[in-house]
Amino acid sequence: MQSVEELLRNSQWAEGLTEDELDRALSGTIERLVPAGGYVCMKGEPVNHWMGVIDGLLKMASHWSTGKTTSLAGIPTGGWFGEGSLLKDEVRRYEVIALRDSRVAYMNRATFRWLLDHSIAFNRFLLTQINERLGQFIAMIEHERLLEIDARIARCLAGLFNPILGPGAQRQVEISQEELGYLAGISRQRVNQALKLLEDQGLLRIEYGRINVLDVDGLRRFGD
DNA sequence: TCATTAAATTGTT
DNA sequence: AACAATTTAATGA
């Protein structure tokens, strides 16, 4: 269980910062505890923060008035998000919800802008992160069109272990099969079936309310 | 500490 | 979508 300071110090973007710059980043960042199911930020509200997961698991989600819901991305411990809306200066397009009790760091807009103006390392990190996320979404489309359901679940899980987007992801992923279904765009029943197949192959272990991932690379390669 | 109960999640059709 | 079974967490004796 790490503190805000540890999250920042352990973040890749902080590696290239001077001690002064890091202090500035820290003083512009606060921590909030978000209970499971709670909103980290809401669709339509003005964007005033860049956010990082100190500990927990979040989902970026789209919610329809018909009650339908789908998740766009999972954000594990160590992941940072929200730079897109912040850079474009627009209202938030998607909501971010905690999948389990989570501790979230909120960096205010002024601090984010200051880092953007003062640190090349910070800019380089953002570029890398945005590139990584673009790759993630492209892969998602590719998988949806080319892979079988079982493989999609496998890659969806493996995606949580992206070293840039989720450097602190734990092997024990605390996510229900229903939420995993939202994330992969698959029914809960089918998720259940797929997980059993993956468990049989020794890639993971199904536990109550979570998945114990045994072989990330195996999941990543599944279906090749 | 143990038994009971409710809520959440999983397993199956 | 519906239903049964299982696990967990909370409650109170």
What keyword list fits this structure?
9 helices, alpha+beta, globular, DNA-binding, 2 domains, Arc Repressor Mutant, subunit A, four-stranded antiparallel sheet, Jelly Rolls, 224 residues, 11 strands
Average pLDDT across residues? 95
Instruction: Give the quaternary arrangement of the chains.
Output: single chain
Radius of gyration based on Cα positions: 18 Å
| CATH architecture level-2 label of the largest domain | Sandwich
User: What topology, given as strand order, has the largest sheet?
Assistant: 1-8-3-6
Please name the CATH topology of the largest domain.
Answer: Jelly Rolls
How would you sum up the major sheet?
Answer: 4 strands, antiparallel
**Strand percentage:** 15-25%
Q: How many H/I helices?
A: 9
**H-E order:** HHEEEEEEHEEHHHEHHEEH
Alpha-beta classification: alpha+beta
Q: How widely separated are the two ends?
A: 36 Å
Helix content bin = 40-55%
- Counting structural domains, the number is 2
Principal-axis shape: globular
What is the strand tally?
A: 11
What are the low-pLDDT stretches, counting only 5+ consecutive residues below 50? none
Q: Could you give me the name of the CATH homologous superfamily of the largest domain?
A: Jelly Rolls
* Name of the CATH first level of the largest domain: Mainly Beta
SSE inventory with pairings:
Elements: H1 4-10, H2 19-27, E1 29-34, E2 39-41, E3 49-55, E4 57-63, E5 69-76, E6 80-81, H3 83-88, E7 95-98, E8 102-108, H4 109-118, H5 120-146, H6 149-159, E9 172-173, H7 177-184, H8 188-200, E10 204-207, E11 210-213, H9 216-221
Antiparallel strand pairs: 1-8, 2-7, 3-6, 3-8, 4-5, 4-7, 9-11, 10-11
The structure holds a DNA duplex (13 and 13 nucleotides).
